[in-house]
Amino acid sequence: MILFKSLVFVFIQPKKCFEKGINKKQVRLMVHDLLILNNLMFKWLRNKMIKGSENEFRKCVDMCHTFIKFAEGQEMLNPTPIDIGAKFDYPNISIKLDYMSDQLAGLNQEGYSPQTMSKLLDLDMECRRLWAIAYGGSDLKYNKTFDLK
Predict the structure, then answer these.
(1) Within 13 A of 84's CA, how many CA atoms are on the CB side?
(2) How does pLDDT run across 23-40, given as a tens digit for each residue?
(3) Which range of residues forms the domain containing residue 43?
(4) Residues 9 and 69 in one domain
(5) Is this model's pTM higher than 0.70 or not?
(6) 103, 124, 135, 138: which has the fewest C-beta neighbours closer than 10 Å?
């Protein structure tokens, strides 16, 4: 805990570190430790999500499926401009959605495992990215909008 407080202090008030007699080498070591701590925290969070239950897997599959159906409907009504589609390596978003739908069907057929959960989380992030960039949706409203409950 003391290490964490000192690391936070380095980032919040770096000038005061030098005023208190901490040299550059000590600051570099503290920054290095903070980066390692940060990396471990993200690994822990990702591992916790990957170890999720079958219910979480199903819920994520359903949300991705609901989003893809929404996006396909939007593309029929008002196709996304090519420049936005190019951000996803697909000038035509409909082709991207077909690919995502096939990928989701494959993951659903394989069922829950840590590997499929990892792939599903990647697909979910791509759905969220598409929601925000192509359709102007808020990250905060994604779960509320596409959760079937």
Answers:
(1) 14
(2) 667 666 666 666 676 667
(3) 2-49
(4) no
(5) no
(6) 138
